[in-house]
Amino acid sequence: MTTDSIKLYGRIILEGDIEALTGLHIGGSPGALAIGGVDLPVIRNAVDQAPYIPGSSLKGKMRSLWEKATGVRQNRSIGKGVSIHACDQKTDYQQCPVCQIFGTLGQSDAAFPTRIVVRDVPLAQDSLKDVRTDMPFTEVKWEAAIDRVTSAATPRQIERVPAGAVFSLMQIVFNIYAPEDIERFLDVLTTLQLVEDDYLGGQGSRGSGRVAFKNLTLTCKSTSDYEQGELQKLAKLSDGRTMLDWMKMQIVTAPVGGN
Fold first, then answer.
1. CA distance 9 to 225
2. What pTM was estimated for this model as a whole?
3. Is residue 92 part of a domain?
4. Confidence of residue 182 (pLDDT cuts 50, 70, 90)
5. pLDDT digits (tens, 9 = 90+) for 113-153
6. 125 three-class SS
7. Is residue 259 situated within a structural domain?
8. Number of structural domains the chain divides into
9. Which spans in the chain are helix H?
């Protein structure tokens, strides 16, 4: 595969639920929501005001942890004091464990379609229906910043989705552009495990944001499946070589274009 040509073999679609094991805070705009007048509100759906997990938040966390796990250089500044990794050259991109999965900047010489798509995850319809909360779907957590010299406290209110909330349906779509991409999909699963042992959203070092990915299923589509309307499903994740062999059989060896 080169960045000069693109061939879609198929897609792997991972679906499941995200359960908040501790309170979850993914910030919204204070000016967009005045419910309760909290200092740090969560992001909410504009239609029904239910909290949700933006795909950008989950994907960004996955990428950040994978950059740390693989030790790639933080070579691109995206703001004051904030840097990320992004390949600029094709030769670097072809060997990169991060950009091959999560993509790179469109204006670089290594521009290539990202393999991974992470969709927004809404709050499950029945989640929290029997839970009494301070505000619709959320709780208010009081925190205080303490002056290290005078011990003076400055309290603030942080809005969180309470522990036990379930977000569904999580959907991650992984595009296969080369046979070796199937091995890279295992790295995607690794990033989700890294997220489970870290946190999602803000205030993670103070207890918020621990999550678990549950009820996971895989769907595998080759390009011929799109033309023929056929679909192969895997009831639940299997491990090791069995899963890799199944994916290779469904995607890499499937006829392209029905030929």
1. 11
2. 0.81
3. yes
4. confident
5. 889 999 999 999 889 888 888 788 898 887 767 767 776 76
6. coil
7. no
8. 1
9. 55-70, 90-93, 99-102, 181-196, 223-228, 241-247
